Each structure stands twice: as C-alpha cells, then as structure tokens.
UniProtKB/TrEMBL annotation:
CBS domain boundaries: 332-390, 396-455
The protein's name: Polynucleotide adenylyltransferase region
Keyword annotations: CBS domain, Magnesium, Metal-binding, Nucleotide-binding, Nucleotidyltransferase, RNA-binding, Transferase, tRNA processing, tRNA-binding
CDD domains according to UniProt: NT_ClassII-CCAase
Cofactor entry: Mg(2+)
Recorded superkingdom: Bacteria
GO molecular function list: metal ion binding; nucleotide binding; nucleotidyltransferase activity; tRNA binding
GO biological process assignments: tRNA processing
C-alpha cells in the first residue's frame, strides 16, 4: 500500500527523509506541478502536499498524483532526519504551516523556487531561484532542460497543467516567453493538451451555477484612477469548492480585465483576484491581506474580520497601489507650525488656539528634529489642573509615527486612521518638513469615500467575536448569567457589556469571576429588573449612577456608560452620561479598556478602541492619555500591580509619566484611605514583594511615607513572609491570613513605637485598627524575647503553645519568618499545624460536678489540663478528669491552709 496524505502510516513507522519538498498552503496546480518538477531535481526527496481548497485539484491529486509520486503526510516524517527543505511557488514562512516544525531547526538547509514578488516574510535560504515568470513550474522546467532530464507523458501533462493554470492558458499579461518555451518542451515530452483543457474547463454543477449567478449579480465596476476594477462577493455558511474556478469563469464571460471576488464562507473571508492589466498587481493586494500570489493571479484567506471590513480594506489597497504617484508631498502642509520642547504648557495652548490646531509637533530646541506631539486636549486639561507653567516635554506624546515625503497613500491612512494618530510629521531625514492632519487626509478622500477602510476609522469599533473563548474559559453558570443579562438588556432596548478586567482575563486565560457590567441606559433601573428576575437584591448609588446586584453567591457591579472627569489632581471623579467608548476611555490602562457585548445576536463581540489586544500581545502596560496619573495617582500603584501580576512591562511613555507625577509630589494629595486600599490589593497579589521592590525602585515607598523605605533587612523579612504565607495557604487551614496585616508588619519592622503612629496616621487607620496593630506589634516583641529561651529538646511544647496562642495568625507567621533559628521555625510550624487546634475533653461543667466552686480556679485548672494534653501526659478524657481532680484537691488544700493561717 502506498502511504499518501490521506493514508497515515503506523504511528511507530516514521519516514526517514533527508530532503523534503513542499509548497504553499491552499495549493493550486502550479504548486503541485512545481513540487513534482522539483522532485526530478532532487531524486529520492519526500513530497509533502500542503492541502488545497480547490475541489478539482483535490480530486485530481487523490485519484492520480498520489499513485505516481512520493507524497507523504508531514506527521509521518521524522523531522530530526530532515537536512534539506525545498520550497516551491512561495518563499513566505507564513504560507507553509505544514512544515513549521522544520523552520527553526538548527542547521536546516533551504532551497527556494518562486515567481512571486519579495516580501518581509521571505525565508532566508542557502539557494534561491526567483524569476518574474508566469509560473514557478516554468522556472523549474528550465533547470530540468539544462540538466538534460526527461519526462514521461503523465509527468509532462501534470507540469503543463501548472503552467497553463498560472498563465491563464497564456492569457495573463504576466506570461513570459519562458512559459511558452517550457510548454513547448513539455509538448515534446508527451504533454496531453486535451487532458489539461478538460481539467481547466469542466462543466459546472447546479450549485456552482447558483454561486456564479450570485457573483454576477453582486458584481460592480469601479473606476480607480482610470482602471476599471470589478469587485463582487458572495456569502454562505458552507465552503464553496472551486471558488477560483468560478472567478475565472466570471472573468471570461464578462471579458473583465481585473476582478476581485470576496467569499464569506463560514467564519472566513476568501479572496480570489485575477488581473490582465499591467498596472494592477493582484499579488501585492492579496499579500497585504495576508495571502499571496503573483501579478495576474492571487488569493488570501482572512479570519476574524467581517465581509464589509475586508471590502473596505480592499478599496484602500486598490487606491494606494493603482495610483502610487499620489504621495504625501501633495497632502502635507508646509512649513509646519512647531513649538520647541523647552516651552511651557500654556504657551502650547496659546499657539494651538491662535492657529486652530488640535495637535502641534514638538521639536528639539534650536532644531527641526521632531521629538514629540502635544495635543490641544491634553494641554487644556493640564491648564485646568494648574500645570500651565510646566514644561510641555513632560506630557507630550513621545510615541508617534513619522513618514518620509515619498511614502504612499495607504501608509498614511494606516497611521492616521488605523493607529489613530491625528497628526503625522513628514520628515526629510531628521528634519521636519511638513505635517499631514486627519483633516487633510479626509479632505483629499472626500470625493472617494469608498477608498477609506471603515475598519481603520477610530469611530468604528474594532470588534471580533470571542464567543468560543468565553465558552471555553468560563464556567457554564457564568455563561448562562451573561446570556440572561444580555437578553434583559435587549428587552429594555439597551446595549449591555461586560467590561474591564473580566474581559482582559478571558483573553489571558486567567480565572476572574469579578464581573462588571456597563449599560448604555439606566444602570439602576436595569439592575433592579435583573435582581427581580434572578431573585437577588440591589444596592443603588444614585450619585454615581451605579448599582450592585447581590445574588446568593455573586455580586455584580452595574454602571451607566459614563465619562468621569476630575476637578483637580487626585480628586474623586464627577460623573457624566456618555457612550461605551467614553466609558472605556476613563479607565486606567488600555488592557482594562475592553468591553464584551452580551446582547443576543452579538454575544461575544469584543470592543477594543484603544489597542488593548496588541498591548497584551506586546506585554505592555500603557495609559490611555498623558494626564492619567495627574488625575488619579493611585493608578501608579495599579500599573505596578498589573505589571508584576502579568509579567508585563510598563511602557516607556507611561513610565516617564509615572516619574513626572512623583516629581510633582501628587501622592501627598492622595488620601491615606485610597493609598491603603491600593496597598491592600498589592499585598493580596501572588508576589507582593515584586510590587514593593518596584515601588521602592521608583521612589514610591518614600513618597507614601519616608519611614516605609525598604531596607535590606525589610526586604529579607518580606521575602520570608512570602514563603511562609505560601506555605500556610497550601495547608488549607482556617482562619485565612489577612495579607495586608502580615506584610505591613514587615514593612514597618524597625520603626520605633513612638513613630509608628506617623505611618498609621498617613494610611488613615481607624482608632481601633491603630490600637490593634500596635498591640500586635507589642505581642510580637514580647513573644520574640520569650522564644529566645525556648529549646526544642529541653522545653515543653505547652510552653511554646502558651507563648503563641494569644497572638493573631499574622503575628505568628511573622515570628516564623522573622526567626533565624531553625528549631523555633520548626516549633512554630508544629504549633500551626497541630497544637493550635488542640482542645481538651473536660469543661467547667465537669469541674462543677467534682464539687469545685466556680471561680478563677476553673480557668487555671483547664489551662493546666490543656498543657498536659499538648505534652502528651493526658490524652484521654479519663486522664484529663483525674488530672483535674488532683489539681482541684491541691487547690482546695491550698485555700484551706490559707484560711487557717
């Protein structure tokens, strides 16, 4: 039996192939033919077929080619044996996923044969044969002729099929004399033209005729800079085999020179493009869409985009590629209005107001080197916070794109529309020569609105559906709740979203059931309806237009979509009604500015206005605007908490804004209550010491209070506290540790008793909290002294228990971390795991039945009995009763003797 791509070998029978030949995914006849042709140049090579979506090609391959040539499935090959990889009809790494495990193999040699244009994704190869011919097969045939290789009729026909298809039976303008020469030589080798004609022009089925009719009906012709381009589309939930054949038929029937067909098939958009026009390279178009091809024929498959979004991007690509002479020199304003980086914020506001600018480029003093962009909105907000005299370099945006004057139109649209950069500096080397604003671009495009991709517009919600992630990463009970909540919103006529960290953690595959909902409507009315429906209750906050729905096992925060603004630095927010976009914009970081639609019909659609997904991919913590920390300095602590929790990195611009906020001493304006709340959250993290070290590195600990500066001793104890806390958590014992109480003991270690009040006062402890914390510190100090004299081999365990039993759990764990003596740590471990919960089997009732008069003696006797049980001297109830009687009699004698004297 011949092993084919559809006939897997025994799992233990791996093929030992030194040379592997493959082509691009979704192979066409040229790819298949080029693979077979290459096998003549590399005798004994193993061919790995990448799969095809064309029905005729798949049938031909299964019925004929597998029996003639050495095709295998990659899973049947031992990759360790492969020394040489030969790739035909592509050079792009992303287009050969079937052999991806080989691509990073050290020492792998690669040979390439291709006729497509260069791309940034091209593989590096030991040998690369690339020619601008009509087909890759023709390139390899030329090499075969040079080596004197001959073919049989079946082989010649297969290779001819590849050339005929990729040149459109020699009808494409990309056809070269070399393709004719190759076909002529193949004819001499026995190529059967009738077989090729039958394969390329077979009769259409009834279903195919229906789809062709849909393509004809939807076809529209667009004049794009003097070139007629036909764009058509179809939409179906099932895959359409031979889609490329239908496009070819359409092109022939209507005598079309350039046609691009978009087919929505299930959750993917398939793009097939054909061109006979010398000025239109559909290969470049499809490459930009993530596919590939050559000037005359190309294709792409797009995931996670709608048909409308792909269509709009297609128009933008066509306008930029067909008319490359439109460059930004014709769009930019020159000379640019600039401001130097040593000027103040109020000067920037004055300048932008005078010229009616929304943004102004910032240049290095005395030069035209662009170092930043200052936005009018940011500068105005700075003035409202009393920061007008600050240097604008503190708050200008340093993360921006620039272009050279010869850049094409699509790149400009990609930056201004796609990346939402409203002003684009135009450079000549390092010299700023002009600017293009969003208004300039829109004015130029106003006569051609079709060329603007809606998916690039900032007003358009960049949405993809992540329902599959929701269903796989949340428990069914949570999914059911979201659907109920969404259906209620639909009934009330409002959009409802899950927002913030809940959505972020779905994407990061982290458990988080702390659900926040935002309603584009009245959140309080919605919450009351939801509570009634689910049998819960509501706590409403009318001032903030929010509510909490309290169910048996869950609390859900519900908010009205709103915009918060701050009247002065570090103030609590004032609330205004607004849309979901503005509600997300008020949040701290991009990774938390996410929303998930839960209304029926749109359930699972992700709303990401600010590039959160990209920041998560880049592992970056980034604020949404440059005054974020001025408005709320506690966001600095949250930035550090998220950075360490997710092992991300605070972005450069965001880090600079943190340092600037600290230089303005904004922490002094924060209430101790808010700081303490953030500290409690940090200390509840899995690795709070990492956060505290980062705070120390940035000078935040001293900004909170100078006495909290981390010393080497404190860091060491905090490290040990982390270890003992993790150890205790793994015991699953009660009570649970209150993390902030534990770590605050470490943070305040070494602070004198008469100074500790400064810290507790800054953190706004209540009188009770301060009293309890001071008592705990005193108890720890006393216990430390008493533990110094406890010896494991000489002292009783009951004595250790007596020292530790009055101390709250956090204090005991601190003693364990603080002690450097192993026997004391071992003893404390024994106390926590065994001794702490020891109880005795006798009570005051038993003592009363013995005839002892109630009084202080009861307590003394029961303590002695407990000590005896801990030390192993009174394990049973009978032993304990006997001991209690002896102690009672001894106590009675003592009392009588005392009376007698």
């Amino acid at each position: 039996m011949i092993a084919t791509a559809d006939t897997p070998m025994n799992a233990n029978e791996k093929i030992h192939a030194k040379t592997v030949i493959t082509a691009h995914a979704n192979a066409d006849f040229d790819a298949l033919a080029a693979m077979v042709a290459a096998s003549k140049l590399y005798p004994g090579a193993t061919l790995v077929f990448p799969g095809s979506q064309e029905k005729s090609l798949r049938n031909f391959f299964i019925q004929s080619t597998t029996y003639l040539f050495n095709f295998k499935a990659f899973k049947d090959i031992d990759p360790d044996d492969v020394e040489l990889l030969v790739v035909v009809d592509t050079r792009q790494r992303s287009r050969i996923p079937q052999v991806r495990p080989l691509l990073d193999k050290p020492g792998l040699r690669i040979h390439l044969y291709d006729h497509h244009p260069d791309t940034d994704d091209d593989l590096k190869a030991e040998m690369s044969v690339v020619k601008d011919w009509g087909s890759t097969t023709a390139i390899i045939v030329a090499e075969m002729r040079t080596r004197g290789i001959t073919l049989n009729a079946e082989e010649a026909t297969l290779l001819g099929l590849g050339i005929y298809e990729d040149t459109g039976s020699f009808g494409f303008n990309s056809t070269t004399p070399h393709d004719f020469e190759a076909a002529g030589w193949l004819k001499g080798q026995g190529m059967d033209i009738e077989v090729i004609s039958d394969l390329l022009s077979h009769e259409l089925s009834a279903e195919q005729i229906t789809h062709l009719g849909e393509l004809l009906q939807n076809a529209a012709t667009y004049d794009i800079h003097g070139v007629d381009v036909v764009i058509t589309e179809l939409s179906t939930d099932r895959f359409v085999p031979d889609f490329a054949l239908l496009v070819h038929k359409l092109m022939d029937m209507e005598n079309i020179r350039v046609v691009i067909a978009l087919g929505r098939m299930g959750d993917r958009i398939h793009v097939v493009a054909r061109s006979k026009h010398p000025d239109v390279s559909v290969g470049q178009i499809c490459t930009s869409l993530g596919g590939g091809g050559h000037a005359a024929a190309a294709s792409a498959t797009v995931k996670d985009r709608t048909l409308a979004e792909v269509r709009d991007d297609l128009f933008a690509l066509l306008y930029s590629h067909i008319n490359p002479q439109i460059v930004i020199e014709s769009l930019m304003s020159r000379p640019p209005v600039v401001i130097e980086d040593d000027r103040a914020m109020n000067e920037a506001v004055e300048l932008m107001t005078r010229y009616g600018l929304k943004d102004v480029p910032v240049v290095a003093s005395g030069t035209m080197r662009c170092v930043g962009i200052m936005g009018h909105q940011t500068a105005d907000k700075a003035l409202s916070h009393g920061l007008g005299k600050l240097g604008l370099s503190e708050y200008m945006s340093r993360k921006f794109e620039t272009v050279e004057s010869g850049t094409d139109l699509y790149r400009v649209m990609e930056i201004i529309l796609g990346k939402r950069q409203r002003m684009l500096p135009v450079m000549d080397g390092e010299t700023l020569v002009g600017v293009i604003t969003r208004t300039d671009l829109m004015n130029m495009l106003i006569d051609e609105p079709a060329r603007i991709p809606d998916s690039l517009l900032p007003e358009r919600r960049r949405e993809r559906n992540i329902a599959s992630l929701v269903n796989s990463r949340l428990p069914q009970k949570m999914i059911d709740f979201l659907k109920v909540a969404g259906e209620l919103g639909q009934d009330m006529g409002w959009e409802v979203y899950a927002v913030g960290g809940f959505v972020r953690d779905i994407l990061l595959a982290r458990p988080n059931f702390d659900l926040d909902l935002v309603v584009e409507g009245d959140a309080i009315a919605y919450a009351r309806r939801l509570a009634r429906q689910l049998g819960g209750r509501v706590k409403a906050h009318v001032k903030f237009k929010t509510a909490v729905v309290i169910l048996d096992d869950q609390r859900v925060d519900v908010a009205t979509a709103r915009l918060e603004y701050y009247e002065y630095p570090a103030a609590l927010p004032t609330v205004e009604l607004s849309s979901i976009k503005m509600d997300l914009y008020r949040r701290d970081f991009t990774i938390n500015a996410l929303a998930l639609r839960i209304n029926p019909g749109r359930f699972g659609q992700l709303v990401d206005f600010f590039g959160a997904e990209q920041d998560m991919k880049n592992k970056a913590i980034r604020v949404l605007h440059s005054l974020s920390f001025v408005e709320d300095p506690t966001r600095i602590l949250r930035a550090i908490r998220f950075e360490r929790r997710f092992e991300f990195q605070i972005g450069g611009q965001t880090l600079r804004l943190i340092k600037n906020a600290l230089s303005l001493d904004l922490f002094s304006k924060l209430s101790g209550t808010r700081i303490m709340h953030e500290l409690q959250l940090i200390m509840a993290e899995e690795n709070p010491l990492a956060c505290l070290n980062r705070m120390q590195e940035l000078g935040i600990m001293e900004a909170i209070h100078p006495l909290l500066k981390l010393s080497a001793d404190r860091v060491q104890v905090l490290m040990e506290l982390g270890k003992v806390n993790n150890w205790y958590k793994l015991l699953y014992l009660e009570p649970r540790v209150v993390p902030w109480k534990l770590y605050l003991l470490g943070l305040t270690m070494g602070i004198k008793r008469d100074q500790i009040g400064q810290v507790t006062s800054r953190l706004r402890f209540t009188t009770k909290e301060e009293r309890e914390f001071l008592q705990l510190r005193d108890m720890i100090g006393d216990a430390l002294m008493r533990l110094m004299s406890w010896r494991e081999d000489k002292s009783r365990l009951s004595r250790l228990s007596a020292i530790l039993r009055p101390i709250p759990l956090e204090g005991v764990l601190f003693l364990m971390a603080r002690s450097r003596k192993e026997h004391i740590r071992r003893g404390i471990s024994q106390y926590l795991t065994r001794l702490r919960d020891v109880t005795i089997d006798v009570s005051g009732t038993d003592l009363q039945e013995m005839g002892l008069a109630p009084g202080p003696a009861y307590s003394a006797i029961l303590v002695r009995v407990l000590e005896a049980k801990i030390d192993g001297r009174a394990q049973t109830r009978e032993d304990q009763l006997r001991l209690a009687k002896r102690l009672g009699r001894a106590l009675s004698r003592t009392c009588k003797e005392g009376d007698g004297s």
